[in-house]
Structure formats: C-alpha cells, structure tokens
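Lab intake sheet, docking and co-folding queue.

SAMPLE TYPE: protein with bound small molecule
LIGAND NAME: flavin-adenine dinucleotide
LIGAND FORMAT: SMILES
REQUESTED OUTPUT: full 3D complex as structure tokens
PRIORITY: normal
SUBMITTED BY: R.K., bench team

The fields below were copied directly from the construct record.
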Amino acid sequence: MAHYDAIIVGAGPAGASLALRLARAGRTCLLADGAHFPRDKVCGEGIMPAGVRVLEELGLRAALSEHGEPFCGIRYRLPDGTRAEADFPNGATGLGVWRRALDERLVRAASREPNIDLRLGSWVRDLRLAADGAPAEVSVGGERVRAPVLVGADGGRSAVRRAAGLAPPLPRDGRFGVGAHFRHAPFAEGRTRVEVFVHADHEIYTTPVAPDLTCVALLVRRRHLDAFRGRLEEELRARLRAAGERCGVLADSLRVGPVRALGPLGLQPARAHADGLLLVGDAAGALDPITGEGLSLALVTSGIAAEVLVDAYAAGDFSARKLSHWTRRRAKEVRALAGLTRVVLSLSERPRLAARAVRNLARSPRTFERLLGVAAGMNPIGSLGLRDGLGLLLGV
Ligand SMILES: Cc1cc2nc3c(=O)[nH]c(=O)nc-3n(C[C@H](O)[C@H](O)[C@H](O)COP(=O)(O)OP(=O)(O)OC[C@H]3O[C@@H](n4cnc5c(N)ncnc54)[C@H](O)[C@@H]3O)c2cc1C
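RESULT FIELD (auto-filled):
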C-alpha cells in the first residue's frame, strides 16, 4: 500500500498551494481531485493583494499575468446611481483571474513537483480517519493509500469534514451564489475596479478577468431564490439589465462557459483539526463572499497549515492536541476579516442602512480606503478608528 506524508483531498487553491509548500519542505503528498482541470467554479474571481503576494511567492505571478486582469480597488453602486469607490492603499493591486486559469496553473505547478503524486479525475472515497496511532487510509482511483495526516481541502461542502463529524448545521435561509462569464468589447475605464451593485435583495459583483471578459457573481438569500429555479441565466440577465451601466452591457453580452449556482455559503465548523486531520480553505470555514476574501485566505493560511504540519512531522506527533495549533492560528489570522465580513453582511440585510453606508463611503473616501486596506489583508483591523466607524455609519 502506497504511503505518503500527507493525503490532500481537493486540488483547489487551498489544497494545491498547501501541497506545493509541503513538497518544497521535503514532504511527500498525494494531491487528489475528482475534477479534471481546467474546471469551472462559481466564484467572484477577485484575489485581494495579500493573495496575489502568495501567488508571487509560489512562483505563479508571471504565469497568471497572461490570464489575469489587475484591479486597483472597489466601486459600490446603488440603484439610485450613487457610487462610492476607493483604491487599495499604497498602489497595491488585486487580480481578477478566471478560476479555470488560476486553478489549472496551481495544479500544473503541483504536477512539476517530484514530491507530489497528483491524481486528477480521482474522487477520494472510503475514508478511514487516523485513530489510536494508526494512519489515515483512503481509496483513490481504486487504490488504498495511507498517510499520518489527511487534509480536507475539498471545499465548502467538505466530505472529509462530514466524515470527521465536524460538519456545521445548514442555515435555514443561507446565502447562495450564481456565477457566469460574459465576453464584451473592452470597457473604456481608466483604472479597473471590481464593481459591486448593491440591491435590496441581492448584490452583483463584476470582476474583469481580461479586458474583454468579465466574471459575474450574484449573491442572494435562499428565500429569494425561487425566481431563479429552472431559469438561472434568464434571471441573471434580468438582474444585470435592471442594474444598468457595466451590468447592463453584460446583460446583452455573449456568455462564455456555464451559469451555475452554489450554496449555502459561509459554513463554519467549530474547529479545523482532529487526530491526524486538518481542514483547509473553505472546508476549514468559509466567509460569506460579500467581502471577496476566500481565495486570498485559502492562499495565505495554507502557509500557516504548512508550518503546523512541518512542526508535527518534526515531533512525529499528529494528535489533535498538536494539530489544534492550526485551528488557533487560523482563527487569529481570520478574525479581522471575519469581523469585517459580519459588519458588511449585516448591513446588506438592512437595505436602507446599506444604501446609507454606501452614500457615506462616497463622502468619506479616506474611510473607504482604510476599510479596503483591512479587507485587502494589508492593514490590521486595529488601524480602523472611531472616525472610520462614524464615517461609515454617519458619513462624518
Ligand atoms: C459566489 C461566490 C463568489 C466568490 N467570490 C470570491 C471573490 O471574489 N474572491 C475570493 O477571494 N473568493 C471568492 N469566493 C470564495 C472562493 O471561491 C473560495 O473561498 C475558494 O474557492 C476556496 O478554495 P478551496 O481550495 O478551499 O475550495 P474549492 O475551490 O472549492 O476546491 C475544492 C476542490 O475539492 C475537490 N473535491 C471535493 N470533494 C472531493 C473528493 N471527495 N475527492 C477529490 N476531490 C474533491 C473539488 O473538485 C474542488 O476542485 C466566492 C465564492 C462564491 C461561492
């Protein structure tokens, strides 16, 4: 039976980046994904500057620059035409990149690492979790394989998480995402920004991933989903048309690839470890995509996961107690963004307050810029002061 230092289930950004880091630290990994790449994934496709930095560290920036579209900040728009926009501090840029390209590039980098045994089109099944000092064991492509550590990098509805008894309860009125890509004549905008159209019962994110290709992600509560049943594309186009401006152009543009829906989003397990088990990326806990952080967090925190595992290998200790460092250190890293996401999400639940906040941000661009600095992973949440709270809520 083949034996590895780690079995990583899922070769999305979390699993592939962790495999790259472990392999480069001298550890052998089986990295398996049920999908064949390139594959589509419902996502807003905007990577925050902190995530872009990780791609650079992993040696992928050059490969992605031919596919990605840098963006300098965010623009919020209201149905009444109000707009608030700000750029990331210090000229930093995020990257809009089609997940087909991003994930395929990460997987391709993994395929070049001698320490990674990459299996695509291979669903991992029949999990036996590590227990009483015995390693974890799984089936992949009909073969049984073993490792002292099993890593669940299998996304927001993680089967590894479920097998470990860590699946959180499903919310009754969770949020869902609808995603698609549209081809169009290049927009005549000086600087590229991700644009967020804030409506009373949904938000629409548009992220240019090439001068003539835009990713659209619409976020909506389950109670508003009925209109989308059986007519995803028509309803998406209708909402784009109603939003107007850039969205209006996209409503009449050629769709490229599928229109897909995904949810419920933002599921958070109580912990991201157990004996011989780590959960990473969305499996470890997804933030609502309203602040567009998931990719960046997956990439940044896989560095912490790698450090915790390297330490566990050195000690030969894969107990839940040892691996609990991961849950603790991850929680610390995520805390600020989780807080910001909660504030933005709770504003979005109160349309009049949300509209007032966008108007206030339009009047207080410095506050908006400081908030973006936190969202971008560039500034700690402590960099926000009372003035920023007043700026957001009262526009003073
Ligand atoms: C509507 C929407 C908009 C978003 N917008 C943004 C945004 O603008 N910016 C941003 O940073 N983030 C955004 N996100 C979040 C982002 O998409 C996720 O955080 C990110 O995909 C998490 O990566 P991951 O590697 O953890 O999981 P995934 O990308 O979901 O990858 C999981 C992989 O596991 C594989 N898998 C699952 N089960 C098995 C199995 N049993 N065996 C083998 N393989 C398996 C799957 O095939 C998949 O390839 C958005 C999400 C949604 C839904």
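REVIEWER NOTE: The chain has a mean pLDDT of 92.
SIGN-OFF: pending second check by T.M.
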